[in-house]
Amino acid sequence: MNTLDLIKNRRSIDPDHFTGAMVEHHIIENMLEAANWAPTHGYTEPWRFIVYEGEKIASFSEFHASLYQKHTNAEQFLQKKYEKLKNRARLCSHVIICVNKRGDKSNIPALEEIAATSAAIQNMLLVATSNQVATFWSTGGMCYHQSFAEELGFTIEDQVLGILYIGKSEQVQYEGKRISEWQAIVTWK
Ligand SMILES: Cc1cc2nc3c(=O)[nH]c(=O)nc-3n(C[C@H](O)[C@H](O)[C@H](O)COP(=O)(O)O)c2cc1C
Q: 9, 56, 94, 101: least CB-packed within 10 angstroms?
């Protein structure tokens, strides 16, 4: 498959539609290696990944749901949401937390590090797609809550850019859509 087709074939697959089968460890390693080859201004290489594999995923789910419980007022707490966070990854093979770690090169704008980490995440998704591995980039739940990054050992300077749910699915090939054709988002000068 050529690169454009690979990019167009990448789909977000809801983890509820995963099969529960494991993705081979070496594919996950390939995804992480691809991430590390993203472009990076000044070689800040700001991406960091926390990988939960197989049975370890339960500890992530517990962590995620308990953070929600801890940081939500009793009046706003929804048992349904708590259960959803606890069960979200039940059919995943791996969960990868993607973090942008702000470096100490103050001449590199923070935005550029976020851009680099975003590119790294896309690299991972494309390697997954090329191996018929399903992925879902989520920013839901407690992802953006300060406590989430802190509990994982990061600081207020750093940003969690997403939770990648990874697994096998029968749905990998469903057709995607875009609101605009590419010609509509380009101004030629
Ligand atoms: C930064 C970012 C955050 C996202 N967060 C969520 C999310 O929290 N929930 C969700 O359903 N999809 C999320 N998505 C996935 C988009 O919904 C998805 O990419 C979009 O629907 C297009 O579908 P496709 O990825 O199959 O082309 C996110 C995507 C990006 C780039």
A: 56
